[in-house]
Amino acid sequence: MQLPSRPVVLTGASGALGRELARRLGEAGWPLVLTDIAPFPDPVPAAARFIAADLEDGVAILRLCEGAGTILHFGGVSVERPFEAVLGPNIRGLYHIYEAARRERARVVFASSNHVIGFHERTTPLDAECAYRPDGYYGLSKAYGELMARLYFDKHGVESVILRIGSCFPEPRDARMLATWLSYADLVRLVTCATLAERVGVATIWGASANARSFWRRDDRAVIGWEPKDSADAFAPALAAKVSDDPVAERFQGGAFCAIDYTRDRG
Predict the structure, then answer these.
(1) Which domain holds residue 59?
(2) In-domain check, residue 100
(3) Which one of 98, 137, 138, 144 is the catalytic residue?
(4) Which residues, including other chains, have CB under 8 Å from residue 21's CB and lie 6 or more apart?
């Protein structure tokens, strides 16, 4: 595997996806700077170092990003939470990441989410240019992040690869994930391509494996040269009937996130 020429900062390194990226990229010898507000629970890879930091501490973020060529931004609140819980890490924290990227002329690989479009119905195939329809405060914060990426490119030339991650787990768990699943191996390949591609501008990519039931179509994956190699299709016999009894969760692409605090008629 080709190695990045400058250090790569990985935020959210102590989370499930961060730990997987740290392990696999670390094994490949990437020069990683791992960071999280929580301690890193695994052995730190030989070519990496871990620095604890809060995304809301702008000075700390600037310092740990010094010299970085890429910031893999996987930090922040990763599930639906009340607005005040999302506000600090996902809004203010993202601003600190982009200010660091501007200063260092670094690329941002932004872990966005399918929840930016969660209130589109499952019967509607989507291209990456579709309208935002966030399904909660978490999804709203990710839509903000995607717009931040566009602003910092148009105004400052900061390049971004936006990864609209579907459901990234070792295996799919229910019928919805037959459409949205992203394997760990495909995630690592996606992040690798997003980091090493020569020029990207602002590229938006659906973070899902090659699933026949996918809700998502055209995106910018050709810009970075990525194609998924895995698929949820083999899990269909076991999972196709594994659905919830909530009509809101089953109607919309965002699934259970759409049903949280939903006050309209569910019929």
Answers:
(1) 8-259
(2) yes
(3) 138
(4) 10, 13, 72, 74, 187, 188, 191
In a domain, 228, yes or no: yes
Eight-state DSSP code of residue 252: B
Q: What tens digit of pLDDT does each residue of 122-165 get?
A: 999 999 999 999 999 999 999 999 999 999 999 999 999 999 99
pTM score, whole prediction: 0.97
Distance between CA 116 and CA 211 in Å, rounded? 20
Instruction: Give the three-state DSSP class for 10.
Output: strand
Q: Does residue 144 have an active-site annotation?
A: no
In a domain, residue 181? The reply is yes
DSSP 8-state code for residue 239 = H
Give residue for tokens 């052995």.
Answer: 43
Q: Is residue 1 part of a domain?
A: no
| Distance from C-alpha of 12 to C-alpha of 40, rounded to nearest angstrom | 10
The whole-angstrom separation of Cα 153 and Cα 149 is: 6
Considering its fold, how many domains does the chain have in total? Answer: 1
